[in-house]
Write a structure and sequence with these properties.
Elements (H helix, E strand, L loop, with lengths): L1 H17 L7 H11 L5 E7 L6 E2 L8 H8 L7 H9 L6 E2 L1 E10 L5 E14 L5 E4 L11 E4 L7 E6 L5 H8 L5 E6 H4 L2 E3 L4 E9 L4 E12 L2 E7 L6 E4 L3 E3 L2 E2 L5 E3 L2 E2 L3 E5 L6 E3 L6 E2 L6
Parallel strand pairs: 3-14, 6-19, 7-11
Antiparallel strand pairs: 1-4, 2-6, 4-11, 5-10, 5-12, 7-8, 8-9, 12-13, 12-14, 15-18, 16-17, 18-21, 19-20
Helix pairs in contact: 1-2
């Protein structure tokens, strides 16, 4: 009741002060909106879009007997994320090489909201993860990429995806398969604009790539409403997003005619991989020489 009375008093005062101007501008409407309720200027949701469920943990992660039993009991019928969360507890796994996100933004103001920049922030780097690798590869191709972060850059910025040239051996080896044939190109906001309108959703498909160091980061969105600036920081339910290069010890090799000569190898402390019949996970007996192959290694 007290809040209702206060809100009513605020609105009445605004009505008397603004008079006929009240219905003339979206800025005035937003002023009233702010006075009546505490409402975020941009509403957002984040969804992981990786079709598989590859997770890598840092070296030293304790693979206890109880965790082994839980991993052996994992099924792919449903609730996979919860099953793995129960196993890993408070561990902080990273996605290998590529992180695919769907970031949905919705304007919550009558005025248009102009997004000036989207960039990784709170960046921390460390050696590539080489602890436990939980390998559940994707069975179908990934989502369309609309924006890329090259986390190997000292100050990563949003970039436009470019198709990898089939003759660019280094790019194909480092990025081609894992990124659905894309690499980071020109600056995204150099030639693109993003405007959020009230109650309308815009979905961004973001691909973050790390091939040199393990990287944790959050995403900051810088925007304008009229002549006022604001920012929104997005993360994984309070935790940063994490990406790590693969710990490949050899790369796949092909003959000139395209025949596979040798599959790439990776090295980890523990590897749990999808069974051949897709019924669950099995522990790899020799994780230090794990045949991973293309497009991973």
């Amino acid at each position: 009741m007290v809040w209702t009375a206060v809100a009513g008093a605020v609105v009445t005062a605004l009505l008397l002060a603004l008079g006929p101007q009240l219905y003339d501008g979206d800025e005035i409407k937003d002023t009233v909106r702010d006075a009546v309720r505490d409402d975020s200027e941009i509403r957002h949701t984040v969804q992981f879009m990786d079709e598989g469920f590859d997770l890598i943990l840092p070296a030293g992660f304790e693979m206890s007997d109880s965790r082994r039993r839980m991993l052996a009991a994992v099924t792919l019928d449903g609730g996979l994320e919860k099953q793995l969360t129960d196993v890993l507890g408070s561990a902080e796994p990273a996605r290998p090489v590529v992180l695919n996100l769907r970031l949905t933004l919705e304007g919550r103001r009558n005025q248009p909201i102009f997004v000036d920049r989207i960039s990784p922030v709170d960046i921390e780097r460390e050696v590539p993860y080489s602890g436990t690798f939980i390998h559940i590869p994707p069975q179908i191709s990934g989502s369309t990429v609309g924006m890329m972060f090259n986390l190997d850059e000292r100050r990563p910025q949003a970039r436009v995806p470019e198709k990898v040239d089939a003759n660019d051996d280094e790019a194909v080896q480092r990025l081609g398969g894992m990124t659905d044939g894309h690499k980071p190109g020109a600056l995204f906001f150099q030639d693109n604009t993003l405007t959020l309108k009230s109650a309308e959703e815009d979905a961004l498909f973001i691909q973050a790539v790390a091939t040199e160091t393990a990287v944790s980061f959050r995403i900051r969105i810088d925007y304008r409403i009229g002549d006022r600036r604001g920012e929104l920081v997005v993360d994984d339910a309070g935790d940063p997003f994490r990406v790590t290069p693969l710990n490949c010890v050899s790369r796949s090799r092909w003959a000139p005619d395209g025949e596979l000569l040798a599959s790439g190898m990776a090295s980890y402390e523990n590897v749990w991989s999808l069974k051949g019949d897709f019924s669950g996970l099995e522990e790899i007996s020799d994780p230090r020489r794990f045949e991973l192959g293309s497009p991973y290694c």
